[in-house]
Backbone:
């Protein structure tokens, strides 16, 4: 069904009275100065919907459970311990129910697509399921239930640390050598849920993948997105430097063909030289501002990176909170606190506009989606918001994305399309009444078992 928008963003320009026709998930025709016709979906402000480039769906079920301080210093590593306790229990059915909930929340928050960095592959204890890709199939089922655009990123996780320690405890569910990992990827390929779904790979990190394995897996996978966790924690930088003789980002720059198919998740701890080189590589920095703040990771080298033309997108990572405006706001505010300046992540003009449009393009690139802007031929990843809200009604077009990022509450999304699939209407996901009871029931079973 065609969409008529009172206001929309075409490239960098605000345009009024636009009618958009969609065919097979793509934008077929854009007509400006158009009247709405009977049967059109009428919306107020239409924007390109962002891709959420980094998610571990199951971690949504832990949100709010680790915000306490025990004796001694609470840290990233104690958070990881709770995650491993969960991993001793999680069933395929629970993984599907949790993923469906969080994908639904993402769409209601304005994300049309998600990069699922999927690393739980096996049964508790490490034995494979009868079907090697069982848990990937559960992610596909959740994507199908919600209609979200999925870029599935099966994770190669082989070692318990940079010295190639054996996996133990909860990690046993992640483990594959390269041969079995490639088998798993092949097993996923025919089962992708939608025609716009993509399959990439995710060598977990330089802690969990060896240089030889990384080379091998890249040789076997010449196309599609490649995502890797890099330089999230200071400890990780120290460990990698001790073992490989270089900091993680520097090592990657020197040892793999970094380019447009790559997404470096976090890249929090970089020298100025690493920052410049990454910015010029054409790869995307996958920033997860809420999670990075929640875990106390550190602050990304944003001012330098953006000044050098670096590409970036945002991800909700641990899924502690699903809020697109808050991700963008946290990104900018962390930079302001560090630089003791305002409007850091833009050289001139609206910060909200720069953050939103760059994250749209960077997210689409990282997910391998032909999206990120409203243009003919692009996927119809679209989101509508209502500017009648008191926090937006006084703002000009050019101020609108500043209002959305910095002033408005969550919940202004009225409609969302993932590759033309109209799944959020009047602010609610169309499958909400089915997904939430299934989640409640799954989580009750999980909690009863841990
Ligand atoms: Zn992550």
Residues:
């Amino acid at each position: 069904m065609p969409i008529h928008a009172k206001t929309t963003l075409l490239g960098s320009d605000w345009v009024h009275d636009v009618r958009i026709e969609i065919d097979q998930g793509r934008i077929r025709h854009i007509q400006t100065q158009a009247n709405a016709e009977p049967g059109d979906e009428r919306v107020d402000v239409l924007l390109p919907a962002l891709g959420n480039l980094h998610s571990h769906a199951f971690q949504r079920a832990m949100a709010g459970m680790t915000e306490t301080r025990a004796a001694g210093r609470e840290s990233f590593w104690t958070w990881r311990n709770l995650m491993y306790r969960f991993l001793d229990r999680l069933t395929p059915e629970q993984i599907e129910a949790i993923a469906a909930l969080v994908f639904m929340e993402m769409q209601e928050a304005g994300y049309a697509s998600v990069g699922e960095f999927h690393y739980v592959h096996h049964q508790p204890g490490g034995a494979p399921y009868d079907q090697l890709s069982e848990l990937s199939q559960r992610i596909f089922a959740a994507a199908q239930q919600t209609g979200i655009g999925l870029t599935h990123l099966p994770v190669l996780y082989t070692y318990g640390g940079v010295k190639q320690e054996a996996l133990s405890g909860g990690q046993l569910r992640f483990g594959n050598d390269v041969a079995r990992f490639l088998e798993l990827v092949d097993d996923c390929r025919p089962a992708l849920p939608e025609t716009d779904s993509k399959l990439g790979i995710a060598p977990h990190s330089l802690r969990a993948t060896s240089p030889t394995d990384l080379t091998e897996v890249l040789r076997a996978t010449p196309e599609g997105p490649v995502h890797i966790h890099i330089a999230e924690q200071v400890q990780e930088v120290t460990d990698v430097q001790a073992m490989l003789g270089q900091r993680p980002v520097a090592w990657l720059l020197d040892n793999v063909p970094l380019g447009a198919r790559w997404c470096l998740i976090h890249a929090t701890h970089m020298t100025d030289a690493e920052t410049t080189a990454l910015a010029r590589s054409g790869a995307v920095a996958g920033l997860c501002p809420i999670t990075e703040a929640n875990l106390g990771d550190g602050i990304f080298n944003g001012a330098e990176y953006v000044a050098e033309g670096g590409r970036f997108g945002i991800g909700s990572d641990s899924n502690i909170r699903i809020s697109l405006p808050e991700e963008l706001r946290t990104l900018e505010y962390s930079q302001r606190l560090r630089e003791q300046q305002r409007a850091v992540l833009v050289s001139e003009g609206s910060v909200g506009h720069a953050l939103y449009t760059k994250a749209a393009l960077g997210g689409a690139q990282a997910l391998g989606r032909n999206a990120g802007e409203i243009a003919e031929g692009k996927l119809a990843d679209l989101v509508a918001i209502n500017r009648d809200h008191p926090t937006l009604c006084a703002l000009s077009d050019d101020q609108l994305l500043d209002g959305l990022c910095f002033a408005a509450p969550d919940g202004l999304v009225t409609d969302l399309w993932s590759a033309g699939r109209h799944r959020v209407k009047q602010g609610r996901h169309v499958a909400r009444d089915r997904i939430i009871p299934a989640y409640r029931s799954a989580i009750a079973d999980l909690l009863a078992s841990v």
